[in-house]
Each structure stands twice: as C-alpha cells, then as structure tokens.
Fold each of these.
Amino acid sequence: MVDIIKVKGLYSMCVRRHAPLLTTIERYYHAKHLRTSRMFPGLVSSPPTRQQVDKSSRSQFPETLCKSQKLMLQMGLIQGAAAGTFYTLPLLTRSLEKLKRVIDRTMQNIGAQKVTTPCLAPASIWKASDRWDVMGSELLKLKDRQEKDLCLAPIGRKFRDEMRPKNGLLRGREFEMKDLYTFDASLKEAEVSYNEVCEAYLQMFKELHLDIVKVEADSGAMGGSKSHEYQLISEIGEDTILRCTKCGTSISQELADSHPESKKCLQENCPGNWTETTGIEIAHTFLLGTKYSKIFKAQALLANNKVVDMQMGCYGIGVSRLLASAIEVLSTEEYIRWPQLLAPHQVCIISQQTGHFFEESLSIAESLQEELLSKSHLHNEVILDDRHKLSIGKRLIICEQFGFPYLIIVGKKVQEATPLFEFVDVYKGEKQFLSREQIVSRLSQIDTVVV
Amino acid sequence: MVDIIKVKGLYSMCVRRHAPLLTTIERYYHAKHLRTSRMFPGLVSSPPTRQQVDKSSRSQFPETLCKSQKLMLQMGLIQGAAAGTFYTLPLLTRSLEKLKRVIDRTMQNIGAQKVTTPCLAPASIWKASDRWDVMGSELLKLKDRQEKDLCLAPIGRKFRDEMRPKNGLLRGREFEMKDLYTFDASLKEAEVSYNEVCEAYLQMFKELHLDIVKVEADSGAMGGSKSHEYQLISEIGEDTILRCTKCGTSISQELADSHPESKKCLQENCPGNWTETTGIEIAHTFLLGTKYSKIFKAQALLANNKVVDMQMGCYGIGVSRLLASAIEVLSTEEYIRWPQLLAPHQVCIISQQTGHFFEESLSIAESLQEELLSKSHLHNEVILDDRHKLSIGKRLIICEQFGFPYLIIVGKKVQEATPLFEFVDVYKGEKQFLSREQIVSRLSQIDTVVV
C-alpha cells in the first residue's frame, strides 16, 4: 500500500531558490483519505527548530518577522516570494478559504451581493478622483503594449508598493481584502446601513472569538463624515488607541490629535480615564457621504422624481491580515493557535508507532476516520497522522504545535474489553478516555466551515 | 414594508462612465430573503432589448462580441472595465464560485492540495527559464519603487497583454485559471498521475454535461513529451480539430501540421476518415518531463539514496473561459442556458401581479421560499420574483431568459380546494401543476453547489 518517495527541493519551482526549511516530503500513494504523509509540506517530519528558522529567515527576509510569521515559516504554512509577497501553502490556504466563507456568509446575511473587479484598472478612474496622484508611489503603475496607463487596483486583491514591507502577511505588497459599498438615498438611511454593517462585523469577530475593539477614527484620505477602525489588541500593533477605563469608548490617537474635541467631549460624559494601548487594524468602515458619488454621478431617482447624489458607505476587512494577526495574538512562541473555527483541520487521529500493534491500530484509525468523514460537516476535516516512525508522544507534541483542535490517539487501551481512545481537546487543554461512540457523538456537535 | 428607491447610474463608481444598460435598480428594504427587487442589477425591470445592447456595446467595446457576451451584458451579468477586463456582477459571480467549488472538489478527490501564489512575481523566475523573453510582450511587466523588475504572473489569476482582446471573457487580458502540478520520481509514475488528472477533468466536464473532447496536442512553448487539449466544440472556436469519424480519436490541426506522422500512424490503425471541426480550448494538460525540474533543481531522493530530477506534469483549466464558453454553446440568441448545476439560483418563485389576489399570493410565496431555504442544499438558491408591476406571463419569459432551472408560479390555482402551483422545469421544457408537498419533495432531490 505504501510507496514512499522522498522529495527534495520540491518548492524550488515556486520559490526560485532551495527552501531550506522544507526540503523533504514523503508521499504515500493510494491512501484513501487525508494523511499527514500526503500533506504538502511540513507535516511529515518534525518541524525545523527555532534556530533553523531564525537562521534561514535572516537570509531570506530583509524585513522584520514577527512571531506568527516565524511560526508560519517553521510549520510550512507560507513561503516567501518577492519582497512583501508570499505563497500560501495548503494548510494556510484552507484556513483562509474558511475565513472567506465566514465573511461571505456574514455579508449574505445582511443582503450584500458579491461582485469581482479586475486587478488591472485603467488610470482614468483613479485620475478622476485625484487618487492617482494622492496615492502616489503606493499605487503600482504599469503601461500595456499600447503604452496606456494602468494600475493594479487597490480594491479586491490589493496591491500596495510598501516602502518597507514587514511582518509578512501583516504588511505586504499584495494582500486580500473584502470590500463592501452601500448606496442610500438619504444620510439617515445611509446611517442605518452603516450601523447594520458595523454590527455584522462585530458579530463575526465575536463568532471567531477575537478581542477586536471598535475605535472611532479619522476618515483620513478617504473622506466622509464618520469612520471606525476595528483593532485587534496586540503588542506588535502599530496603531495607538485611547480607551476609556470606565465606559470602554475607544478613539484612535490620530483622531485625538487631529480633533482634540473628540477626546474632550467624550470625557465630559464619562468619569473614566483614557489609557493607551496598541492594536492591529483589521477592518475599517467609512460613512463617505457624497464625495465619490458626486464625482462619478451615482444618483438616486426618488419616488417624487427628485434626483439626489447617493450617500455612500465603504467597508473593508483585511482578510489575510485578520488571519495572520489572529494567529499572532493567539499563539505562543512554539504553538500555533488559530481562531478555532478556522483551523485547517479540526481533527487529527494518531495511530501507533511501528511495532507489534501497528497494523491493528492503523486499521482502527482508518475506520474511525472514515466514519467521521462521512458526516457532511466533517468533510475533509479529519486527517490521520501516519508518521509511524515517530512515537505517539512526539507526534502529539507536533500536532499540538500545529493547533489541530481535537486529537484522537489510538493507543493501547483500544485493545481492552471496552476499547477506549485518548481524546484531547487542545484548545481547552483537556484529556480524557472516550469510547468510539462518545467520540463520534462529541465531534458531531462541533462547528465547522466546509471548504 | 416596501420602501422603493430607484438608483440611477449606480455602476458609475465602478465603470468610469454611465452604464446605459443598467441605469435603474429598485431596492426593497426589510425583505427577509432574496428577492429580485434586491438583486443588483438587471432583475428589476425587463432586460434591455437586443438593439439597445448592440448599440451600447458598439460604443463600449472596440473588439468583437460573441453571443454569450452580448447576453451577459444584456442580462447584467458583466460590465466592461478596461479593454479586455470585466467586472463580474452578482449572478455571474455566484455561478463562477459554484464552478470553483466543483473544481476544488474534483481536485480534492484526487488528493491535490491547494496553494495560492501572488500575482506580483519577481522577474528572476521568468528569466531563469528564458520565459521572460519567450513570452515577450504578452507578459505584463512593471517596476516597483526600487526600480526592480516584476511581472504579473501568468499563474493563478492570469494576465496576458492580448494584442486584440475579444469575445469578452473568452479572450481577455485578465482571467482566472485553476492550475495543478504533479511531481513524480519516475516517468512511469508521472504517467499514472497524468492519466489520473486527465480522467478527473473528463469526469468533471461530464458532471457539467459539457461536450468536451480530449484532443492530442502539440506541447508548444511549454515543452514536454505529451499534451492534450480539452476542446468544447463550438462554431466560434478558434482551434481546428481533426476527429476520426470511426474511432473518435482527435488531434489538433497544429499537431497534424508539425508532426504529420501523428495523423498518419493513427489512420493506419483505424479505417475512419478525418473530419474538421472547431473548438474552444477549455483546459490543457502537459506531461512536462524534467524541463523545469532541471532548471529549478526539483529533485527526488529515492529509497536507494539515488537523486533524480522530478518528472513533472502541469494542468490548467480556464475557469472563467469554461463558464463563458459553456454559456456560448448552450444558449440561444435570447435565452441564457447555464450548465444546470452552475445556474446562479436554481429556483425562482413568481407571485401574482398587483391586484386583488396580490397580498395572499405573496404571502404563500414567502412561506414556500422559507420552507425551501431551510433545506441546507438550497441555501440561497431560492429567489422570489416580486416585480409585481409586471404580469406573471412577462416575468415568466424574463426568468426563462435568465435560465433559472426551476420556476414556481403562485397563480390562481392555489386558491382551489387542493392548492396547486404551476411548476416549470425550464431545462426540460416541462410544465405541470403540483401540490406544495410535491414541489418540496421534487426540489429536495436536485443537485446543487452551496456557495
């Protein structure tokens, strides 16, 4: 059944250099379901040590790398490409697709409809709103074969020629955003739409168990009358936030500087004090008013035949940044922790090490995997860790490092009269022995995002 | 409940000009579920006439437009952006997402794993394989703020500076592809992988009921020992295919020209004759051998410690092209037909026109919609056509033009002792009266792709 091939330098097709961290992968053919031995890459052998990662990343990345970025390199979740751009490898790609499904669902629930816009955009749009010059050298510009000016649109998949890309996915030159625009005929209705979207954002962050704070912010270059940032509290965050110790109201340092009255008037209504903290900006919402609708003539024809400029709202979530910064905040130096719903695979089954009980244990693991996979909400969620040259203990540590939420160990106790499995709830830090029926019942109830 | 706003020129934010086809949209707030009146755009009023589309497209598009492209403009499925690039609007976006899910599922089933690659790529990769020069001006090149050479990578989301973009999504400057690479340690194993992928492609095309022919082809600039194109037979296709009348073997005209023996030797084994037909290339597979693995040192370390260059296969499906050309082939001049599984919404319920039975009919329609939507496979699949200023007959024609597979009319017969609905299976051309239970049971069995 197993036909092992070790592959060296498999990544070089993608990465224009040998990838020192990820040199070896084994493939087992004919495995019916997902196994660690079929994963690409990084799940076969133990992850490289922290020292290896540090040494390798110093030569690859001139920019600073934060904790989550080092972890992602160590675990084979990303691979650097050009400066400020990254390949996302299978595990991270799965997690990102889950996040996109969660965002899609949230947006569908408030009646938003999805469109896609091309990356290549004619210069004329950006010139009409003066943003060709305002955005300056941050805009990546190019000419086509007819010498026409184009730019890589900073909407949808976003491009930004960062002066100093750093922290990997947190501040890259190419990243993914979810954008949303609302159009209303009056400011009052636009405010209703605005609040509905803000509420949906907060609800979604809550569903992901992320401590994200809504912060009153400066509208900056975008313009408009009202704006909020959604900040994930983190030491490595570059934005300073002022939070009231009493009522929890938060405003950005920028806003406090440019409009000191915003700080004062809030304080008058509340006896609390302002404390400083730092955050990573995950999302931003703007009540734009008519700034862009005037320029581009987005007008509404009312029932009374009056024509008015549309009141716009614009809203963005940094998709890759959300995931990267969530990992940054939730993980330790050695253990990746995902927002649990977004872990690439929810369940990992670990069978015995090579030895006298090996075959039977593998067969029980396969049968359990098959039963679990047959449930539609566990589609592709259950992988089998068949690195049977490594001890169960060693694999347990590696799987905990990868942050799979539920681990099932097919150990010696499955040979007893009442077969028992060791069941680990990694995120709760609980271990217990459960029967097969109890495991199936427990995992029938977990939330998943099918991708 | 209904609070109508007519919106003029809503598109101008996106399209840098007024969109003459899509000037009016009505929004009903507080509608709990999907309604035509909430769709953006095109579902509210009747579609524009063919003459309006022709007139408008002549001014917007210097390039030729084929049937499917005109239909998509007419129905508000796409909107032109810069030359050779398009906005995909909500209905088409849904359909494309369904196609991507089908492709993902197909690829997962053969054990493929998904990675994403950045659009921005350093010149060095393309220079190493000489493709920077070979691809020449088809490659979109740019410089960053450090004056470093970059290109928009022709992998993943693909960019190609077409000399003459035409037929909209069929030959654009920016389009989406699904790529796949296989790596094996020996040619024999690589051939097994190659055949497995080809088989999966054909199986998927069959699932979509598309008449796609596997054609032996020239490897061209890609190199390698074996290659096949997957051609959708169509009059507007630009590729000439030779098909044997007897055994069905197909080879590309290019291959027959460059390697006349490929034609001869096949004919020797079969008494059939070659006939010429034209097709649209939807996918291409290459058994590449070691051409790229040699350059980039993608090597395998075998069990006997021997190091060999990997045998590569490379495979691509034109995602947006597949959908556009399927629509081209399946549609008439006036009626869009999708691969049924990929229709943006499977079911449309049409309630009564404004009049004495209006309220009751709408309430029955809403309740039926709610019951259907509660089934997980019908998530977001059921829309309610509430354009109640239009007669049922008029809306029936429009819905048939849009190609929703199943229509349910809440007509006078729901007032009878045994309430009956008119049920239309659009793709089979069948109409019948069914009870509510019969409809629910019938629609419980349809195949859908949840997005």
Amino acid sequence: MAPLRESSGDPVLPDPPQGPLHVARARASFPWKELALFWEGEDTLRFKKAIFSALENDPLFAHPRGSRLSVEKYQELNFLRCKRVFEYDFLPVGDMLDSLPRVLALIECLGMYDWSLAVKFFLHVLEFIIHSPDFEAAKFWVGNMGKTATHAVVFAQLYTPGGQCHGLHPFLVQIRDPKTLLPMPGVMVGDIGKKLGQNGLDNGFAMFHKVRIPRQDLLNRSGDVTPEGAYVTHVKDVGQRFSESLGSLSSGRVAIVGMSVVNLKLAVSIALRFSATRRQFGPTDKEEVPVLQYPMQQWRLLPYLAAAYALDHFFKSLFLDLGELQQGLLGKDRSVRQAELGREIHALSSAGKPLASWTAQRGIQECREACGGHGYLAMNRLGDLRDDNDPNCTYEGDNSVLLQQTSRYLLGLLARRGPGGARIESPLKTVDFLDGYADILGRRFEGSSPEDLLDSSVPLAAYEWLVCYLLRESHQKLSREKRSGKSDFEAINDCQVYHCRPLALAFLELTVVRRFHEHTHQPRVPPPLRAVLRRLSALYALWSLSQHTALLYRGGYFSGERAGKVLESAILALCAQLKDDAVALVDVIAPPDFILDSPIGRADGELYKNLWTAVLQENKVLERASWWAEFAVNKPVIGSLKPKL
Amino acid sequence: MAPLRESSGDPVLPDPPQGPLHVARARASFPWKELALFWEGEDTLRFKKAIFSALENDPLFAHPRGSRLSVEKYQELNFLRCKRVFEYDFLPVGDMLDSLPRVLALIECLGMYDWSLAVKFFLHVLEFIIHSPDFEAAKFWVGNMGKTATHAVVFAQLYTPGGQCHGLHPFLVQIRDPKTLLPMPGVMVGDIGKKLGQNGLDNGFAMFHKVRIPRQDLLNRSGDVTPEGAYVTHVKDVGQRFSESLGSLSSGRVAIVGMSVVNLKLAVSIALRFSATRRQFGPTDKEEVPVLQYPMQQWRLLPYLAAAYALDHFFKSLFLDLGELQQGLLGKDRSVRQAELGREIHALSSAGKPLASWTAQRGIQECREACGGHGYLAMNRLGDLRDDNDPNCTYEGDNSVLLQQTSRYLLGLLARRGPGGARIESPLKTVDFLDGYADILGRRFEGSSPEDLLDSSVPLAAYEWLVCYLLRESHQKLSREKRSGKSDFEAINDCQVYHCRPLALAFLELTVVRRFHEHTHQPRVPPPLRAVLRRLSALYALWSLSQHTALLYRGGYFSGERAGKVLESAILALCAQLKDDAVALVDVIAPPDFILDSPIGRADGELYKNLWTAVLQENKVLERASWWAEFAVNKPVIGSLKPKL
C-alpha cells in the first residue's frame, strides 16, 4: 500500500517511533495502516491529522490539562482553548449536517484531547442545553452557565391571560450582561462547584425572581402566543409533540455513546502499550516477561479492546441512523416509517448509552488496575478518563432508569403482534428477528469444541435465543404481577431487576454484536484484515455472552458441563490469538502521543524513560514544601491535648 | 435500654436530629442503639465518640479536605493534622498490642475522617514503609517520603568483604537533614506527583549515589554483620525467614481489608440516606415517592449495605486472628500450629484484600451512580471515597496476582491429603470442611421456594459445594496442563482465569459468609436484633452466591429453571424486607455528620437545604471568574486560524 500523504508531503499515518514496542509491533498478523484506512476512511484520517496537528503546534494547547490544574485555571484555559477552536473553524457549523463523518471525527479529536473542551465547544455550537432534573425550584447543572453563559433556554409552564396552562415551553432568557458578565436584575446565577470530572466546564445554576421575558423570546417551534395573548400550535396532538422531542433526546444519548467509546479507546491504548512493555516475573529468576504474556492480563484487557472496536462501529452506524431521523424531522416527514424510526432509535439510544458508558466505566477501571501503581499516578490519565466518563452513566437519563424505555419498546412489539398479528419489523431491522420468536425459543446450543465458537455467528444465534427468552419471561412476569392486582406502576417496577433490565441490555448487546459481525464479514473487508477483525468480533460477542451463562443454562439453551467450558476456552483461545496483534490494533485507534498524554502509553514504549521525564517535570518535585519549617521546628508534644477517654 | 452516657453526661449515642428522615427511622423493625451496642461494644462506642468529638471541636480539622484542596495545601494541612493527632495521643503506641479493639476503632475514626491522615499517622506509628515494586533503580511510592521523611528503611543486597552476597536486608538510611529538610549528600529525593487519591499523603522516590551506611544501621532482626565483616544469622533456613515475613505481609493486607470496609460503610450511608429522602416519579403525576421505594434502587444498594456489615465483621475477626499470630511471633513461638496459622492468615488476607477492595470499589461506584448528578458533585464525597479506595486494589500486591496465594494454599491442602492421607484442618478451621470434599461434591440444591433461601445456611451449603467443585476443577486442569508438557510456570498461568481465580474468591466469600452466619446466629444476639441481622446475613450470602449461578448449573448443583428463579426471588424478597430498616442500619455504622462530610448524607435528611447551604459556601460561587474580561472583550474571529484541510 502506497503511503497516504498530506499536501505538505508528510505521511497521513506516520510510522510509530522506534523503541521497545517495535518488537511487539513486528509480531502483528496484519498491516495496521491498512486497517486504519479501512476503519476510518481516507478523508477522516486526513481531517483528524489536521486537527491533531493544529492542537499540537499551538502553545495554548500545551499541557497540563485535567485534574492537575486548579478549577479556576482549568476553566480559564478551557475557555481560551474553546475560543481558539472557533478560530480554527475545522468544520463550519453550516456544513455539519452534510459531513456527518467529519462531525464524528471532530467530536472524537476534541474529546480525545479533553472532554471539558469538546463539551464546551459543542454546547456553543448547538445552543444546546444539557437537560437536567430540577433542583427543586432552581435550574442546576446547566453547562457553561457557571461562569460564562449570557443567555439560557428555560423550560417553563406557559400560561396565557385567563390563566390557561399550555404545558412546558422553552423561553430564551438573558441571564448576564455580555459586556460585564454580571447577572441581570432578578437573576441569581452561579457555579455549582467542583465535580468529579470535566471541571474545565463551568456547570451552573440559576434562580429567577419575577424576570420579565418578551413574548418574542418564546422559542416557538411547536407552539406560539399571538400578540393578543392567544395560544397557537401547529402540532396536532400531545403524542406527536412528544414524539418530536424523542428525536432530540436521542441525539444527546447517541453523543454519549460516542463519548464513552472514545474514553474506552484511550484507556485500552494506555493499558495495552504499558502491558506490552512492563515486565514482571518469569519462568526463571533471571528472565522477566511482559505482563501481556500472562493469560490473566490478556483476559482483563483484550475483551475491552474488542469492545472498543465493536462499540465504535455501533456508534458510527447509530450516528448515521440518527442523521436520517434528523433529516426527516427537518423535512417535516410525517410518515409512519419516520415515526417508527424515531421509536427504534429511541430504544437503541436508551440502552446504547447505558451499555457504552458502563462498558467504558468498567473498562477504564480494569485498565487502571491492570497498570498497577502506574495507573494510579494522575499523570498517566486513567483517573481523568474515569472521572470524565462518569457522568455518561447519569446525565441524559440515569442508565438503570433509561433501560426501561428499551424494554417497553420490545414488550410493546410483542403485544402488538399478538396471536396471528402483524409481522414484527422496524426500519433499521434490529427487531425483525423477533418474528421468529417461537422458533428461536426452540433452539439449543450445538457447539461441542472451542473451535466451534471462534466465529461470532455462534454467539449471535445464542443472543437471539437469549433476547427471546428474556422477552417471554418479562412478558409473563408482567402479566402475573398485573393479574395479582398490582397497579401498572407497581407491576412494572417489580419486573425491572431480573427481567426488563437484562432484556434491554441483552437486546442492545445483540444489536452491537450483529452490526459488528456484519461489518467484519462483508466482502469488502481487505483479505489481510479478515482474520483479526473476525477474532475481535468473536471475542466481543463471546465475552459479552458469557455474562449471561446462568440464563443460558437456566432456560435450557445450554446443557451439560461441556457447553460452559467450551465458551470459556474459546474466550481464552481468542485472547491468545489476539495478544500479538494488540499493539498494532492500538496503533489504529490511539491518537498521537501529544493527545493521548500518558507517559506509560507513549507509542515508543520507553516506559521508564518517559515516566522519569514526566515525574521530574511535575511541579516542585525536588523542592522542599513551602511549609517545611513547620515540620522541622515544631515537634508535636505527644499527649499534650489528650482528651479524657 | 437506659441511654449510655459519657462522664460529661452527654449521651454516647445521641438521637439523630429531627428532619425528613424521621419518617424512615420510625419504620425500622429494631432499636438501632441496641444494635450499635451489640456491634461495637460499649468501650469502643465511647472511644470513637471521644475521637470524633475532638476532631469536630478542633478548628484545624474544619473542612475542606480531600480533592477540593490544592495538593500543596492539602499536604500541609494533612501534616499539621497528623501532628495534632499525636498531641491528642488517643491511644499510646505502647498500649496498642493490648487494646486491639481500640486500634481498630482508631484506624476507623481517622480513616472515616480522611485516609490521607490515617495513613500518614500509622506510617509514623509503625516506622513502617509501604513496600512497592522497584521503579527500575529507584525506590518509588514510599509513603511520607515525598516531602517530609528524614530516614528510610531500604532493602538492599548485603555483600560482606570478599564479595559474598547474603540476600536482601533492611538498612536505615538518612535521606534528609531533620533541621532543614534538605536532602543528604548523594541522595536525590522527591515527590512522585499527583495521584488519583490520598493526595494529602506525600509519596516519594529516592535514588542513592554511593551513600555510606554505618554498619550499625543494618536492621538486624534476622541477620547481622560483625565488626570484622562476618555475617551471622539466628534464622536457620531461608524458608523460615520467608515464613516470618509472611506475617508482616499479612498485616498490610488485613489493614487494607479494614480500609475498604470503612469506605464502603461511608458510601452506603450517603447513598441510602439520599435514597430515603430523594423523591422521583410516582404512581400519579402528583405524588412522588422516595427512590428507595423502587425495587431497582433497593437491589442496587441494599446488598452493599449487607456487604458492609458482613465484611466489617470479617475484618474485625481477622484482625484478632492476626493479633494472635503477632503475639506468637513476638513470643518466638516455633510450633507447627504457629506456622500453620501464618499460612492460613496469609491465604485469608491474600484473598480478603481483593474481595474487600473490589466490593468497596464496585459499591462506591454503584452508590455514586445511584445518587445521580448529586453523586457527581465533589462535595458529596463519593468521588473522594472512590479515589481513596482505589489503591487498595493495587498496593500490597495486585488483587489478581495476590489471589494466586490463596488458590495455591488450597491446592496444597488437597495434595497433602491425597488418597487416605491426613485430615484437612487448620488453626482457624476455615478449611476443615474440605475434609468432606467427596461428600460435598455429591450434594444438590434442594430449595424449591424463595422462603427456603431466607436463611444463610442455604447459601452456606451451596458455597461449600462451589469451593469443592472449583478446587476439583482447578486440580484437574493443573494436572492436565502439566501432563501436556508445560512448565510449572506456564501451567499455573494457564489455570488462573476460570479456575484458580474464582476458587480463591469463592473460598473467601464462603469464609465471610460463614463467619457472619455464625455471628448472627449465636445465642447472645439480643432477640430484637435477630431478624434484621439474619436478613443481612442471608442477603449478603445469596447476592454473592448469585454471581456464581452459572457454575452451580454447570456442575449440576442447580438443575431446572426453578432453582435460579427462587434465588433471584429470595434476593428481592430480602431487599423488600430490609428497605424499612435501611436508614436505622445506616445510623449504626455512619459517623457523625461532621466526619461523614456529605451534604446529601446528613442525618436529618434535609436534602435540598443541606445542598444549597453547601453550594453557596463553596469558593467564589457567585463571583465572576478572574478572567471574565477575556470573555467579554475578545470575541473569537471564527476561521481566522483555519488550517488547510
């Protein structure tokens, strides 16, 4: 493959620097640049290179960032960096709807640098406000509101003269004077304080005391008030208004899937490069082996590498699906298909956000632990990744609560079908398999050796059975609870833990597995990449499925000791097959060293050199503490303050 | 029960303040003060009260603490607080070995306030150095070394004249001048930089360049050098020297079990008080219910409450076992029993640390998520708890690696027994059940309704089967791997993931379950406490066991759909039975509000009042940022820096 070059003549994908990781790279079974090209496409690779280079060459983006700064300094730098990104104008706002892959790449590049920056930037681009629950009477958590926002969109009950209430409507409210940044009369606005992560972003609260809002500042997409005080709406029924809002809810959740995937990619990149260079113990006292040679270390990390690939593909495909939905909304498409698409994407994003954010949360934690004490040093970035990923589990809907949206969608499909009812199908075909519900429930696992499981078609079939089983169990349980006299509210709540919750997650895992399976088995996959991609697909599928082994046995899909054992053996076999490809697979997804910003994750693998350099560059490493004299002068008088015990 | 009073007349257990949590407390099935007395004992309650009061009344301990301070300020405050704790002299060092329950209470009280303080204090008390892997040539991670230590114990190869090497020996090395805190000649000593947590503690590194150490600074407990340069040792063989060091390794690991339990107690206290007051959704639009009323929220949190009690009891009992071991070491007990006790405690602490630190890690994360956005605010402390708990998974041996010590111990017992061999028994009787290995493997689960599982004797029996099954599987797998021609090193590594690792964890879970079961079923449990304690015991046991359902089915202990379903139903039934006791159970283990330091976890349950007060007390909440003019004056010129894409 001829090297891709930028117009400057620089290669778009430069060779990694020489160093100890060279040995690990030489063992890879495939050419990593070819995978990068297949995975990203040429335009995206060039675009990402341009963004990364601009940041690296601009002193404003020089380190430090994240938790090693004071909150005030961090917010200032983040604000200045955000302004600078506008000056770079990598992708004009007007072009975004027509360049979805570049939007994806821009989110990813800025997020890989720092989520505080990416979120602040996109909040500006979209005039978009993070929806958060009320903090009783006040608005709380609003992004950019803590220190900088001058206007806010506030949802309030709209009353027209005569006292009639038309429900929640959005209003544009000025909260600060843009010249002085002082609050407007009647507005109390402030910063909510330090959070676990993303502290470059100023989240704020606001309280309003009889603030007057001009009529024209009602944001009138779905309803308006005439100068005479009458209410008019072009949306016929509340249901349709609700359905429109589903689309915008999905956008936030799909974005969070992407944020989670980026965090997971960064974490596995750091941990796998570390594991390929860090040596510990060995067959003899003299010889220490890289920790990635241990099956335990492989099993801890490689499934998360596979998950990063599988979820990355899922995110990109869901983002394109969402683009289709948004095009329909803009074009005022009122077709049945458009409504069905909205429901399907709502179901996918409502379980996709939990699955992706939890996988990232657990993956980052595993990476942190797999790097031992080095992972606990702030400079190696795994702490910031964990902290910045954490809100993904909570905002835009708590994960556990959100999963109910997906199980409700699936139960609704089953109910609509009924005996002899309509086919089950959906625009994106994620639920079409449910049409074979009864047949699928009759399936049994037939593999008898680990080799039978080395392709993702086997776990795919098992997942179809699992989703049908959980759907039947959930449906029966819900009916029982209702028949026993419980209210709908109570009955649904009593079905969540062991029924609806695993149903929603298993359905989403199936969807991710199916899409990754199809992507890795399509004819246009270049032959040198087929084996490694199929291994990733099988590993992610089997590893995910192995969380459900108890249900596979309980429902009779598995029987006998052998089934469970071959599943385990297949996972370990895939880990062993992939271990020599791990560093090259990381080269495909890791950003340049400057962006990755982790001494133990640098591409050359000069672990100790990089660590020492970074340690000695920290603040006041060798200096005495400013309070040293306190230590040397005033010795404690032991017991001088002893209380009566 | 007459109220306990201090000599001042104040009650040792004051009533909780009035507030919204009063309703939840009134529903409890048992008197919480009686449980506090049973759980802690009167002397410990008084002792803890005295420590907590001293800290609360001393302005030096006023907030803030933890991640809301700069590292430099935090280290200074932590150092001053540590000095002050010496002045309080709550428990003279010389009394510690005779007052183990008070040592426990002191660790817990200081740790509940702040682990940075507790660790700094105990590092001083024990002249104890955290052992950490070499950072190639340097010592790295040493607690207190970053800014303050003047002397360090360094392990180095001891060579005597003639070049003979006697292995690793400890030396006392002066690293800083105590008057100036400047480094000694030839010593480079510094701070390793910011960590994810415990930043009040100054961890350091040191490198030595031809530093001379006087002969008398060889710490000569096991070996010495005469003035003429000859090596003498009173320890006969390397094996015994190794066995002595096991005892000191166990101390660190047992302490970490306790640290993890404290973190878990604090986290569940915060999350459960929040959940009993935070209302969301409800059967009608008008009526919102506390989130603890939802079975999902109960299932997310109550098993961790049960785990906090079960592991707390395990920790205390293991600490007393360790005390017995240390007494033997001090008394130079060379009996077989003493050696066996050392091995057993080594096995228990090597899996106890992983089990406790991981349970705390997952529990804190669940609590963080269960509190939604409020859990993500730094002031509510769940972030600091997670960060301060995190090193527990890593130091004193990485959890995953450490588990090998326990599985090796169990496999060794099986091998020693052989066909017709000696009884399997141990000083603490944790492995005596293995003597019935073959019979136990023949057992089958017999419960058929959830009621059959509401006592922890049922999961206890299941755990015995599970450990025997995993022991047999591990033994067979290891033999197979060795027969296939693999080296011992390779064979053992290939048995970890699905064999030795779950074996070690299941054995420890069984031990925790057994000790908690016995503690809650003993005749001296006051009758009003029996029901609630037995429910906690059953919930912890069943919930832990439910992670292994796949193995119970695979190995034939469970069969049919019903077994798995009754296990799930029993867990949910216990959660429902315990939900009204949750707040009172928290009152028993939570420290006073000042120590807990979490607005959403305060004992009165005035959620929003407490939050608003705390938010408005934060730094510069309503002030403009110092850099406000940058925002108002220099608008970005969009695209002015646009790179060529």
